[in-house]
């Protein structure tokens, strides 16, 4: 199969981990006789420096012509004082909106060899396997903020959702749950927010179409607590944009590191942008310390969700799992007795195992 992939490396470790994921995709293409072509485009701070915009028109056009997009991460202290429209993060929000990528899937699954890597007790982390379905193109992130008032001391951000926006993400969550363990936890703040009350009503309505899926409503504060005290009670969590952002970083603790969490951002017709959940990690950028596995697992999600290449995706996931079982890990993972390696070596290890391993076993259930 021939596929054209646009790579948006972005900033900081984004360039390091997207390069790693690209190499793994190249290896997978070679193994399975596919032709993947790659086109690099600018986004974020790098694009601001080069083109004066965090999301140049050329980047948007290239993404629209691609079969899928792979993104590293954006942001960094260099641009933190920029005005809002010239922040790297605007580029990321812009591409999500331009491509209508409203459905953000963030699977959180502990690899057996990483149970000790979490600061949480082994018995708490064991058997956790959940999927956060985060709404990605609405809510607080996309409300137009007011001008500063009161001499610069007052401002308003708005949290707006339409029925259509809520319905489509909730349906995605029920669809996902129906091929998993058939349980949806809808996370909201319906004891305070009007938008959450509408969200809850719609979840109830949509749930009628999925009688085999059980549904539960949970307030976000309690959900934050339960996520790290009894994570195995969750199957699919569906929630609005900001809650999903916060809960997914929290959930990464179950896996041992934020550097382990992949994601897919999809539109209505299956087109997707794939990126690690983590950011540009300015504290370790350029040092070869970044964990490339979140980006590599995001590439596996690309193969599965955009190209229907399930076997290829499973080979990548198996290679990642095996590398960890053999004790290879980057500095962010605390694995006593294992072998600490840099980004490049970790990537090479995954590629070697991908080429050596002809058996496949599904690791991620999403
Ligand atoms: P971050 O996710 O970049 O880093 C948080 C911590 O996790 C840091 O200590 C970092 O070193 C560590 N970490 C993250 N990914 C890692 C990896 N792959 N391997 C090893 N360690 C890893 O969050 P932050 O520091 O709050 O934000 C830094 C910048 O990244 C900000 O500008 C922010 O806006 C941006 N950001 C971008 C994205 C994205 O592009 N999707 C996501 C989150 C944050
Ligand atoms: C993420 C990031 C982004 C978000 C930022 C960089 C805009 O934190 O992808 O999780 O909040 O969505
Ligand atoms: Mn985030």
Automatic annotation (TrEMBL):
Q: Which UniProt keywords apply?
A: Amino-acid biosynthesis, Branched-chain amino acid biosynthesis, Cytoplasm, Leucine biosynthesis, Magnesium, Manganese, Metal-binding, NAD, Oxidoreductase
Q: Where in the cell is it found?
A: Cytoplasm
Q: Name one GO cellular component term.
A: cytosol
UniProt domain Isopropylmalate dehydrogenase-like: residue ranges: 4-350
Residues reported to bind NAD(+): 76-89, 279-291
Task: State if Manganese is listed as a keyword.
Answer: yes
Q: Where is this site: Important for catalysis?
A: 141, 189
Family note: Belongs to the isocitrate and isopropylmalate dehydrogenases family. LeuB type 1 subfamily.
What is the designated name of this protein? 3-isopropylmalate dehydrogenase
């Amino acid at each position: 199969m021939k596929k054209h992939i646009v790579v948006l490396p972005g900033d900081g470790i984004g360039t390091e981990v997207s390069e790693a994921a690209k190499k793994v995709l190249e290896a997978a293409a070679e193994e399975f006789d596919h032709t993947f072509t790659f086109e690099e485009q600018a986004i974020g701070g790098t694009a601001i420096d080069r083109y004066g915009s965090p999301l140049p028109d050329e980047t948007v056009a290239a993404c629209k012509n691609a079969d899928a997009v792979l993104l590293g991460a954006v942001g960094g202290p260099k641009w933190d004082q920029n005005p809002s429209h010239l922040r790297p993060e605007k580029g990321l929000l812009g591409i999500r909106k331009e491509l209508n990528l409203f459905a953000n899937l963030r699977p959180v699954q502990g690899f057996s060899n990483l149970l000790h890597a979490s600061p949480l007790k082994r018995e708490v982390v064991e058997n956790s396997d959940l999927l956060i379905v985060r709404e990605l193109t609405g809510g607080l992130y996309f409300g137009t903020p007011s001008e500063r008032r009161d001499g610069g001391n007052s401002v308003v951000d708005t949290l707006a959702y339409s029925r259509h926006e809520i319905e489509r993400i909730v349906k995605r969550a029920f669809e996902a749950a129906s091929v998993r363990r058939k349980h949806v936890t809808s996370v909201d703040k319906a004891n305070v927010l009007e938008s959450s009350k509408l969200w809850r009503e719609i979840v109830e309505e949509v749930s009628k179409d999925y009688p085999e899926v059980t549904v539960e409503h949970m307030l976000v504060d309690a959900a934050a607590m339960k996520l790290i005290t009894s994570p195995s009670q969750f199957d699919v969590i569906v929630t609005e944009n900001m809650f999903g952002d916060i809960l997914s970083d929290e959930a990464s603790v179950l896996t041992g590191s934020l550097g382990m969490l992949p994601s897919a951002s999809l539109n209505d017709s299956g087109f997707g942008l794939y990126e690690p959940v983590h950011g540009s990690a300015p504290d370790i950028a350029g040092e070869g310390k970044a964990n490339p596995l979140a980006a590599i697992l995001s590439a596996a999600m690309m193969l599965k969700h955009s190209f229907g290449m399930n076997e290829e995706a499973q080979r990548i996931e198996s290679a990642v799992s095996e590398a960890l079982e053999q004790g290879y890990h980057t500095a962010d993972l605390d694995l006593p007795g294992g072998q600490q390696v840099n980004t490049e070596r970790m990537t090479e290890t995954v590629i070697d195992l991908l080429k050596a391993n002809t058996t496949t076993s599904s690791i991620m259930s999403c």
